[in-house]
């Protein structure tokens, strides 16, 4: 964004208000290990977190470890994750990713961005989610549909590409805020700044948002 980047005072005001509005913002997916989180985030592509949380208990019961996923028949994986959509591609990626975790990473989900991005089905959004929520590693800002929509409406980016949006956000948001920022935006997007009918009248940012009441 460079020369047309928003002022730091504006960005800090957004961060302050969102923190107060959503003090407990966190990932909505249920998990108890890095492996379970990786599976859940992969399944969440083009699927709601609610649906994923309905599906994963059975997945984790039948396939509780990377070894179990890697050795399971692809048809079994497909059947378990079918309700999340795009199940054939997701099953293929999960099986191969777990095979790589066993073969290259000693059976553990990688802890670095460089390594985790080598896994099939893992792009930066998935990598950021897993690294931050499983290991406390802050390497970037996950950009999902809510983060993309709200970042553009707030004038924090002009880009549509998630990787470019992430770079724009990383350039203007202090690194210590990267972790919770996505989840604050996601909660705000679900509750207030909806895609079709944003509830601007109830928004804590409505007096500073350049898009308020323009829909």
Please give a structural write-up:
This protein is an all-alpha fold. The chain has 2 domains: 2-25 and 141-202, Endonuclease Iii, domain 2, CATH 1.10.1670; 34-135, Endonuclease III, domain 1 (Orthogonal Bundle). It is built from 11 helices and no strands. Helix 1 (8-21) crosses helix 11, helix 2 (34-43) crosses helix 3 and helix 2 packs antiparallel against helix 8. It is elongated, with a radius of gyration of 18 Å. The model has no long low-confidence stretch (mean pLDDT 96).
Defining traits:
Endonuclease III, domain 1, 0% strand, 2 domains, mainly alpha, 215 residues, class I DNA-(apurinic or apyrimidinic site) endonuclease activity, Endonuclease Iii, domain 2, DNA repair
State the share of residues found in helices, binned by percent: 55-70%
Quick one: CATH superfamily of the largest domain?
Hypothetical protein, domain 2
CATH topology title of the largest domain: Endonuclease III, domain 1
Number of strand elements: 0
Radius of gyration based on Cα positions: 18 Å
Average pLDDT reading: 96
- Spans of at least 5 consecutive residues whose pLDDT stays below 50 are none
Number of helical elements: 11
The percentage of residues in β strands lies in under 5%
The end-to-end span amounts to: 25 Å
What characterizes the major β-sheet? none
- Shape summary: elongated
**Helix-strand topology string:** HHHHHHHHHHH
Please identify the top-level CATH class of the largest domain. Answer: Mainly Alpha
How would you classify the helix and strand content by structural class? mainly alpha
Protein name: Endonuclease III
Enzyme class: lyase
Cofactor: [4Fe-4S] cluster
Domain HhH-GPD: 43-191
């Amino acid at each position: 964004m460079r020369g047309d980047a928003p002022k730091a005072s504006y960005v800090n005001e957004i961060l302050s208000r969102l923190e107060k509005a959503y003090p407990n913002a966190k990932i909505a997916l249920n998990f108890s290990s890095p492996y379970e989180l990786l599976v859940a985030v992969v399944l969440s592509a083009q699927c709601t977190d609610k649906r994923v949380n309905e599906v994963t208990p059975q997945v984790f019961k039948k396939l509780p470890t990377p070894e179990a996923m890697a050795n399971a028949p692809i048809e079994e994986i497909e059947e378990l994750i079918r309700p999340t959509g795009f199940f054939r591609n997701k099953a293929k990626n999960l099986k191969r990713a777990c095979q790589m975790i066993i073969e290259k990473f000693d059976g553990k989900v990688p802890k670095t961005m460089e390594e985790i991005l080598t896994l099939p089905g893992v792009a930066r959004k998935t990598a950021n989610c897993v690294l931050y929520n499983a290991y406390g590693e802050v390497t970037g800002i996950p950009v999902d549909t809510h983060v993309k929509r709200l970042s553009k409406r707030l004038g924090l980016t002009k880009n549509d590409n998630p990787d470019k949006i992430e770079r724009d956000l990383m350039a203007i948001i202090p690194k210590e805020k990267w972790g919770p920022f996505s989840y604050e935006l996601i909660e705000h997007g679900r509750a207030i700044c909806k895609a079709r009918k944003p509830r601007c009248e109830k928004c804590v940012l409505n007096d500073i948002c350049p898009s308020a009441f323009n829909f």
